[in-house]
Amino acid sequence: MNEVLILNQEEVKEILHLEKAIELVEECYTEFNENKSVIYPAVREIVDEHEGIFGIKSSYLIGDKMIGLKAGGFWKNNMARKQKMNHQSTMVLFNAETGEPTCLLDANHITITRTAAAGAVAAKHLAKKDSQTVAIIGSGVQAKVQLSGLLHQFSIKKVYVYSRATEAAEQWVTELINQGISAENAQEAVVNADIVVTTTPSYTPIVKTSWLKQGAHVNAIGSDTKGKNEVQMDKSIDKVVCDLWEQSSIMGELQHGFAKEFLYAEIGEITGLVKKGRETDEEITMFDSTGISVQDMKVAAYVYKKAKKEGIGQIIKL
């Protein structure tokens, strides 16, 4: 019989912290660019009758001899109707040598944390080093963890928050004490920001690139499905970077008529020092994050190995 380690959400949280996730995500971007991992085609489909989006992302970490997948998605009414997270996901890890399953783990915390880490890594390489002002578009879980990721990299003095969920935005601004400023509209938030982060599930643009000041950087996080669109590129950007062109051009911000010839780089080319990140304080830059499976796999592999070493979780026999 094959032994499989089961890890619930609390056990994953016990092991995985944002600082470590930032390190792992940067590493996985570089490894993918160096052909040390393989990403398989993603599945992302609408489930109309339940107002959900279901997806499967899978990949192979060659050095770790581990293959895995994450299945789940976004059910927009979960919180309102059932008091459950809108994002739901689970991962299964396999031994690449034998195909046997080795670990089943809750992936909600992994998804939240690796996405925050992606934003932090992109900003590290593409935003101005002395960035002090951030505009966050959205007020949900990902908005908050994206800010947490940036606080690991920058000395943030002001945070402008704009959200269509005005009550949630106001509450968050109150929590931010002296840093938080509630913006009446998206433009008011964006025009002042060194770093702009979009974290909504919107299908219509909320931010225009013509609003960005010189030297601004945008982390476009929310668009991860066909049709989603948070950023209207009505003014050219000096450097547009994505995590994976094959995904960004189908389900990210770059699906809306953006030609590959205008793409500056995939992020792994920058973390792997093949191309330079920000080169001047005047450049306007943007990172389109659709979330790639090697992020999940790299983080999950770390969680699995640490859990085994420390005796965390429950083992079952299949």
Automatic annotation (TrEMBL):
Q: Name one Pfam family in it.
A: OCD_Mu_crystall
Gene3D superfamilies in the cross-refs: NAD(P)-binding Rossmann-like Domain, ornithine cyclodeaminase, domain 1
Q: Which organism is it from?
A: Priestia endophytica DSM 13796
- Please state what the protein is called: Ornithine cyclodeaminase
Signal sequence interval, chain numbering: none
InterPro entries attached to this UniProt entry: NAD(P)-bd_dom_sf, ODC_Mu_crystall, ODC_N
Record field: transmembrane:
none
